[in-house]
Amino acid sequence: MRMDNCPFDLLALFCDWLWEPRDLASVSSTSRSLCRAATPRLYSSLRFGAKQAAKWRHEASFIHTINRRCDLGEYVRSIDIVMVPLGPSGPDQTFYSMCTRAIEICHNLHSFSSVPLQTNQCATYMVEKLLSLRGPSLSSLRLPSGVVGTLEVLGTCTSLSELHLERPSHVLLSALPTWIDALTSTLRSFSLSDSNVSKELLDDVLSRAPGIITLSIKHCSSIGLTDLLILVSKNLPELESLSVALMNGYMPVGDFDATLTNLRSFSIEIGTTGLTSNGSDKRSMDTQPWTSALRCIKNSPLQSLTLKKSSAPAVLPSEPVPLSILWEDKQPPPLKRLVVWGSNLTLDAVQKICMVFEHLEVLGVHFSGLSTARACNVLNKARNLHTILDNRSRGIRPDIVRALLISTKLRRIYLDREHWEIYSSVQKTNTGELTIVREIRFSVSQR
């Protein structure tokens, strides 16, 4: 039977397995039946990124298409603006105008995300149009808050389950508790970044949304690690995912009473540039903030844990990462992903990790003193480990990478932008016998 003659539901199910827009576009140009099945999927989630911004004046993007074909607007559920194209004197005003028109056309829009926009009349009008027209139906919003002119339109967004604020203005911060109060029954994910929000204000905000299960607080200069963990423990009993990035993570950390018992995912990134108050180089300091955080979450059923320093230290800390806190007086959590960046781990430490965390699938570390034979022996002790991550461009030599992929159960090794992956296939030999062939493929991703 020809594919054109398949039931429409079957064709739509086939298109649901295609993720790349170029694949969906190719399928939609094959026949009328496939075009009808692929079009809703192709236009359901629209992203305007660096590539589209660079070709804005020379190549049509989805914004041009939606403005030209209004009937396609009914399929759009999500719009994500990653980059704004530039004109002769700043952000392109035509872009804002066409985005505003697209928002008017997409009456089923449920999610809108945008980078912080430069404050100008067109950008402000676009955001206010979005909130006034689509506010009641939006479930996810990454708000470019710097361009919000009037706060009345925020009151229309009463069904949000995800709210992301970047560089919020003082006016918006002062109105945030009232706004969050209206979202108490719906808000499940909240993120705040690049803000000078005070401890008292954040406490007020979190106390009004106890149902939050995903929280991200990044680069908020007035919030220390101790304060944040206490506030989270106090106000968010159902929290499952916490992501923290603090530039003042090395502020003195004393004893405090905070326990998180439901976390599945925890990520902490700590700034390591500059000097401490007594003039010592804090790039070579110990792992005290990590220790405090791990004591707070040690009773959680963690599946993902990330400990990271935001810049490469001149002297990596000699004190080992205190992961033993997670298993010293109890069963270890069922970790499937562990990333420790900014501190070297010896093979002995990696071996202990592989033996303790039996469910570990992804391991991100900075190896030190790596020898091929011993590394293969250590990594083979892990039952489910299939991926190694190292964000240093020259963390592991290529010959060692190949040896690890061939001699262990690893399937992928990612080194900064370099991706190594091993594939297995069954091939027929000249004598007609079947044999398994393993091939290593190498690729470099673009920044």
Estimate percent helicity: 25-40%
**Beta-strand percentage?**
15-25%
Query: Which CATH architecture of the largest domain is right?
Result: Alpha-Beta Horseshoe
Provide the CATH top-level class of the largest domain: Alpha Beta
* Backbone structural class: alpha/beta
Radius of gyration: 25 Å
Most strands sheet: 16 strands, mixed
Unreliable spans are 273-285, 312-318
Mean pLDDT, all residues: 82
Fill in the CATH topology of the largest domain.
Leucine-rich repeat, LRR (right-handed beta-alpha superhelix)
Span of the ends, CA to CA: 44 Å
The count of strands amounts to: 18
Tally of structural domains: 4
SS element count, helices: 14
| Oligomeric description of these chains | single chain
Overall shape: globular
Strand order of the largest sheet: 1-2-5-6-7-8-9-10-11-12-13-14-15-16-17-18
Features:
alpha/beta; Leucine-rich repeat, LRR (right-handed beta-alpha superhelix); 16-stranded mixed beta sheet; single chain; globular; 14 helices; two-stranded antiparallel sheet; about 450 residues
Helices, strands, pairings?
Layout: H1 8-15, H2 21-28, H3 32-42, E1 45-48, H4 50-54, H5 62-68, E2 78-81, E3 86-87, E4 90-91, H6 93-105, E5 111-114, H7 121-134, E6 140-143, E7 162-166, H8 170-182, E8 189-193, H9 199-207, E9 214-218, H10 225-235, E10 241-246, E11 265-270, H11 288-297, E12 304-309, E13 337-345, H12 347-356, E14 362-367, H13 372-379, E15 387-390, H14 398-407, E16 412-415, E17 418-428, E18 434-444
Parallel strand pairs: 1-2, 2-5, 5-6, 6-7, 7-8, 8-9, 9-10, 10-11, 11-12, 12-13, 13-14, 14-15, 15-16
Antiparallel strand pairs: 3-4, 16-17, 17-18
Helix pairs in contact: 1-3, 2-3, 5-6, 6-7, 9-10, 12-13
